[in-house]
Structure to design on (503 residues):
């Protein structure tokens, strides 16, 4: 009898141990059976959840799953109909006519109407506020529903790129996102616990191809090392924006997908701060940096070296200035001496600590700048502090981050922030030459002329060293081996509607 008890006890212990191991290995758990996904993200949605007011890239990449505009981007960089089923642009470049798609539902069950579209566009244009919620919507002259299926938007002047901004979310007539997030996307917003998680669920009445997953939980883990540990332990199933070092920590039970992060990563400089007011000093910093070494040390050589505020995915608009500055320490020292800083100066680089790639890049840059006498102190801060102090108040000297296109597939979105009067001009960059060419680009009536203007804008940013441009980083996405369908876009979004479990 005692022998039988010992055998039964041993079998029970073995069964429990096997279950525990299966539950931990590679993150495999009952999530696949439940069709639920947990995604690790490095920051909370600290800015507005209002789709017309959000500014942070991390917020946009999540809400991409919840909201849609009249058009939306696809994975090839094309703008395709969304809430609208079709559109036309007048030859004059100032009239955009949209036909609404039949049967598009909001997450509250209501059918989208022309009233919803007119309300949404007018809200973004600033009808009920002091200024437009998205600056480019100040170009609108009128928004009119000509019948129950058609909306016509007219701009004050020809505006070839305005279509790209009509990815702005369509929300219910008279609604306020502060009272609840209601969109038309493949997932509906369920809940948010600050500093903990954001929960989405599949929207059963989505007009397009429905999402595979029933539920997605975004788990906020601001410590970069804990993110990887959480993936390995099974606490999360997927994590984007890993560094090469982090990706190497994952074993055979994980898949690492590689794409482009579609960011302009740079050491952005406060052009209104002390030594950095002098273009020669900014140019010296550019000459002192070896970008290829940064790529090699930070991401095993993966990514694309950049020389201005544009990345290669923009194709025809991209001006390849990656060779404008190549490391030349002596030239950098000479420029500093000419500017009166022959002994160098001190520089504080403020970096959001939840993005390891920016921290690593800042460390390499700081080491390289020692060679020209610039003594750097790296100050890591929480994301919310970075948004408040650096982005909003511009209280900083230098910062390493990446800027994206604000979900609009347009070159303008990467260049607008350097306009002298732009509210997003975090660099405090002031250039009459730049302002003139940028204004000229907006007024062009042919695409060819506009492309040349935008390329000239990029050249001016490089020449006047608005920032120390570094790279468009590679984007490494770590996920359970039984997940597939992750799709990279030429803008900074995370489309989870295509992701699914294979087992």
């Amino acid at each position: 009898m005692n022998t039988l008890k010992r055998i039964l006890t041993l079998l029970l212990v073995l069964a429990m141990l096997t279950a525990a191991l299966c539950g931990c290995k590679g993150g495999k758990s009952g999530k696949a059976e439940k069709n639920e996904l947990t995604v690790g993200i490095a920051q909370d949605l600290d800015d507005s959840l209002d789709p017309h007011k959000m500014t942070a890239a991390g917020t946009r990449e999540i809400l991409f799953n919840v909201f849609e505009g009249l058009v939306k981007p696809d994975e090839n960089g094309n703008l395709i109909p969304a809430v609208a089923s079709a559109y036309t642009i007048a030859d004059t470049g100032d009239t955009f006519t949209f036909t609404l798609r039949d049967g598009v539902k909001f997450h509250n069950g209501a059918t989208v109407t022309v009233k919803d579209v007119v309300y949404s566009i007018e809200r973004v244009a600033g009808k009920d506020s002091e200024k437009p919620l998205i600056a480019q919507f100040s170009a609108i002259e009128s928004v009119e529903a000509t019948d129950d299926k058609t909306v016509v938007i007219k701009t004050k002047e020809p505006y070839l790129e305005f279509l790209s901004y009509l990815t702005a979310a369509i929300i219910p007539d008279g609604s306020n996102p502060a009272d609840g997030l209601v969109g038309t996307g493949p997932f509906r917003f369920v809940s948010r616990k600050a500093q903990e998680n954001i929960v989405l669920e599949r929207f059963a009445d989505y007009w397009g191809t429905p999402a595979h997953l029933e539920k997605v939980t975004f788990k906020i883990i601001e410590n970069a090392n804990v993110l990887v540990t959480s993936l390995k332990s099974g606490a999360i199933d997927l994590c984007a924006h890993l560094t090469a070092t982090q990706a190497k920590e994952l074993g055979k039970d994980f898949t690492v997908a590689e794409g482009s992060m579609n960011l302009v990563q740079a050491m952005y400089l406060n052009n209104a701060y002390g030594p950095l007011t002098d273009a020669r000093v900014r140019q010296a910093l550019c000459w002192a940096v070896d970008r290829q070494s940064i790529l090699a040390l930070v991401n095993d050589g993966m990514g694309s070296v950049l020389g201005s505020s544009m990345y290669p995915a923009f194709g025809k608009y991209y001006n390849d200035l990656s060779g404008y500055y190549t490391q030349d320490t002596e030239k950098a020292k000479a420029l500093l001496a000419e500017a009166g800083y022959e002994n160098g100066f001190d520089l504080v680089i403020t970096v959001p600590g939840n993005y390891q790639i920016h921290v690593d890049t800042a460390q390499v840059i700081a080491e390289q700048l020692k060679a020209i006498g610039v003594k750097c102190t790296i100050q890591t801060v929480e994301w919310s502090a970075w948004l408040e102090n650096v982005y909003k108040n511009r209280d900083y000297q230098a910062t390493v981050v990446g800027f994206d296109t604000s979900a609009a597939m347009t070159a303008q979105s990467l260049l607008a922030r350097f306009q002298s009067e732009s509210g997003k001009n975090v660099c405090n960059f002031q250039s009459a030459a730049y302002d003139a060419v940028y204004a000229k680009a907006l007024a062009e009536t042919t695409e060819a002329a506009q492309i040349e203007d935008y390329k000239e804008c990029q050249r001016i940013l490089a020449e006047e060293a608005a920032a120390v441009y570094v790279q468009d980083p590679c984007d490494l996405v770590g996920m359970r081996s039984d997940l597939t369908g992750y799709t990279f876009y030429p803008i900074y979004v995370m489309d989870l509607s295509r992701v699914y479990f294979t087992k």
User: Anything to note?
Assistant: Residues 29-66+185-261+475-503 form a domain with the D-Maltodextrin-Binding Protein; domain 2 fold (CATH 3.40.190.10). The radius of gyration is 25 Å. The chain has a mean pLDDT of 90.
